[in-house]
Amino acid sequence: MYRFSPDHRRLGTATSLFALAFVLGTSPAVAQDSANVATAAPQEAPAADQDRDSSEIVVTGSRIVANGFNAPTPTTVIGEEQIANNAQPNIFNTIQQLPSLQGSTGASTGTFSTSSGTQGLSSFSLRGLQPIRTLTLLDGQRVVGANVTGVPDISMFPQLLVKRVDIVNGGASASYGSDAVGGVVNFITDTRFKGFKANVLGSITTYGDDETALVQAAYGTSLFGDRLHLIVSGEYDNEGGVGPGNYGIDLAGRRDWHRASTLLNTGITNGPGPQFIYSDFAQPYQYAKYGLINNGPLQGIAFDANGTPVNFNYGSGGVPLGNGRVSNCYPGNSFCVGGDLSGAPGSSASLKSKLERINGYGRIGYDLDATNEVYATVNIAQVQTSNQPSPGYNRPNLTVQCANPFLPQLIRDRCAAAGITSFNFGSSNGQLPNQLVQTDRDQYRFVVGAKGKVDLAGTGWTYDAYYQHGTTKVAIDVDRIVLQPRYVAATNAVVLNGAIVCADERARALGCQPINIFGNFRPSQAALDYIMPQAGPLQRTTLKQDVVSLNFSGQPVDLWAGPLSVAFGGEYRREYYRVRGDAYGAGVAAVSPNNALYPADPLLNSAQGSNWAAGNYKNGTGKYDVLEGFVEVDLPLFDSDAAGRANLNAAARLTDYSTSGTIWAWKVGGTWNTPLDGLTLRAVTSRDVRAPNLSELFAAPTVTTLPSFNDPFRNVAVQVFQNTVGNPNLKPETARDTELGIVYSRPSWLPGLSLSVDYYQIKLSGVVSSLSPDQIVRFCFEGDQTFCGGFQLDGPQGSNFVNVQPFNLASWKTSGFNLEASYQWRQPLGLPGNFTVRALGTHVRDFIVDAGIAGVAKRDDAGANSGAIPDWKWLATQTYDSGRFTLTVQERWFSDGVFNNNYVVCQTNCPVSTGNYNTVNFNKMKGEFYLDLGASFKITDNAVLYGKIDNVADNDPTPSPQTNTGLDVNPALYDTLGRTYRAGIRFNF
């Protein structure tokens, strides 16, 4: 069995460094100048792909290739100069700052999770529609997913060769296929690069962590009379990450912004005050760092690090009531305020995953003639991450026997006096090692293709054909995590023949060693090996993608206002995944070959699995095939001095999925370059689709135990297993996207100016979403037979279950405005060089989520800063470039918001608090403004020294209050790392 190990890490690093050394050792040639589009008008079509013909413009928002075509869908262009000025170790960090990108994932998100598998995964989300609804391309081609959801990892792209990134802010399914509901992010590489270039970058935060080292190099040359073109590149990036902190409220470094902010649940739903009260320094009263008796006559006795019984300091003036509750505290979620905060685990989660990525890329192309090329590319990449989601093992409901020999005599005497033989006990288990989640993603991507021009019936046609095969292997290993049944056995100690041993004879036979949970007493290695076996939770995933694509574009007919442009083509795609878990998580029967590392244990649930405290990965497999064809036309309507120039763009795509059948996508739009100087109007409406991904269709099932589930048919509480499974009967989601825009670009009186305003509205139907177990059973109980086949509540002990799976139930609607402006001033105030100002903004008017379930209210997520969609988000840059010295000032800002738009704020005379509309006393989250400064200096014609400071003011994040013990921060919006210093040098020969 493969295990994530330091040896594997060293082997992968050594292999890639060898490849990098080969690149660095290759003789450099004369560099080829590449077009820089950073200052191009942002609202027009992207700059030309001048590999073969400078008269052609390839527009990412369209399949049309035409001279002077303007796309109706707004497209933002980020050029290599802007990418370089932002000085980030990962190009993902630069692009995700754009206002239209909301909800993207990266190394600072997902760090609180054990089982998600998204730690360190860099993926884009346009319009807040989540990464699964944004199509990310490399040179217009699909990329194999790095996760079971199908989204790729930008960390694996050949980043030094990227010459621009096109962001299509709107649906593009008719042109590019499934997933392009929110839009498209297309990375365009320099396929004609010649010469040698390199980049070395280092960075560190003001707190002395997240030390980063980046080395990139690329070499390109041509042979055989400039017909054979060879490009190789390699990069190595090591980001140290941030965290973990300590128990309580102490974060990594000297960060002091964590205040354990919580929405305290009073349990009062019918006034007069609110149900939830916002407070800092909340602490749970069910457990403590080294243990707390949390119920019965001894409630309130805790244990310090030395194992000495002490009276627990609850805060809030709390006094234990003997029934599990505490006076002056909050029973709804078992919190007090202040007191002993040392056991709270939230602050101990990593703020940023440690990340190491290695990337090798090569391209070889051969020109058959002046206009036709055949080529092949290979991209091999590895990304490894590690994070600590939480410390120790939080166990609030352990039963402890008063006869436990590790208990101080004082407590055993108190048990006898109270007439009890056991008590309820809660602990963060601060004496246990902290868990560590490690991911290893390895990707192998190969493309062969041909592109160029052919003449058919007297008409020149551009073609692009390619075959891509991609494989991603993902290994997730969780170390130092508890097997729950074994932990319980190890805590139940007795004295036998004068020695302290585990009480359960079966456990003793398999190596159980007792542990002392009453203080900071680290268990013996034998005890740790028993409760935290080295062969911990694991998941092994293989994803494969095969794509065959052929596209044509031409201008077959000259019409009254210009040529008719046509694009058409077809594509076949196959997606496959297979995932395997370990025997203790997935069930012994499911993975019997692993029994050598996971021997049978009578204490464990061998059939259901789910024995780990977290990381109970299951087995699954699935595949689907896609066959599709499309046609797109650009019809010139008129072209005159009096009326201006207008075109109509339309496209249709027919797609057949092996899992869900046939579906149409289409778009109709156009642009009008009015006779008014510099003024253009544009509009587009489209029907876009997203097919359910492999995880939604064939999800590896997960099992959760629900110990007290309400059976409404018999009005009794029963124990059931919640089986979360995929749904192979899911249908594609459909969206209707409408965009209207005004562009004012390069007027004759001020040719450096470009402005645009675009309104958008997206209505998404049939959104894949799930019901809760309670809802499934309740709907059946209320008479809806659709939900009656997925559960059993009255079977033999251990056989009851509720299957939870996704359905096409929900609908979303969002609308808003995109604004973009730029101005380039040549030789400002008589100074040499250029001064460029650029600003981009997005205003989200609404983001309505309708669960599609009776009794569940709609929710507006726009402006809920606990999520990822603020009302307003801006990015502005000001750059002065003298030709030798460059200074860049960047501002990032998003507006104030709330925790949740469905909260009802009140202090007194509150209405009834419901599950749809909770009453709260406070509902505000401050926005944030970040200032970044960067500069570069050309020390020679071939070398540039640069530096940058991100978050100059070292702004702290605004608390995002939890209702549990999690870390009170939202890394999807706020900078959680603080001020960061970056410096590096670039070479170009």
**Alpha-carbon distance between the two ends:** 47 Å
Tally of helical runs? 11
Report helical residue fraction.
under 10%
- Uncertain segments are 1-55
Class by SSE composition: mainly beta
Radius of gyration: 30 Å
What is the mean predicted local confidence, pLDDT? 88
Largest sheet: 22 strands, antiparallel, barrel
Q: What portion of the residues fall into strands of 2 or more residues? A: 35-45%
Number of strand segments: 46
| Gross geometry | globular
Summarize the structure.
The protein is mainly β. It contains eleven helices and 46 strands. It is found in: Cell outer membrane.
Overall description:
By secondary structure, the protein is mostly beta strands. Helices cover 8% and strands 44% of the residues. The chain has a domain at 282-340 and 394-427 and 484-531. The strands form ten sheets. It has a 22-stranded antiparallel β-barrel. Strands 3-5-6-4 form a four-stranded mixed beta sheet. Strands 31-32-36-35 form a four-stranded mixed beta sheet, with helices on one face. The longest helix is centred in the first third of the chain and has 19 residues, at 6-24. It is globular. It is found in: Cell outer membrane. It holds the Pfam family Plug. Residues 1-31 form the signal peptide.
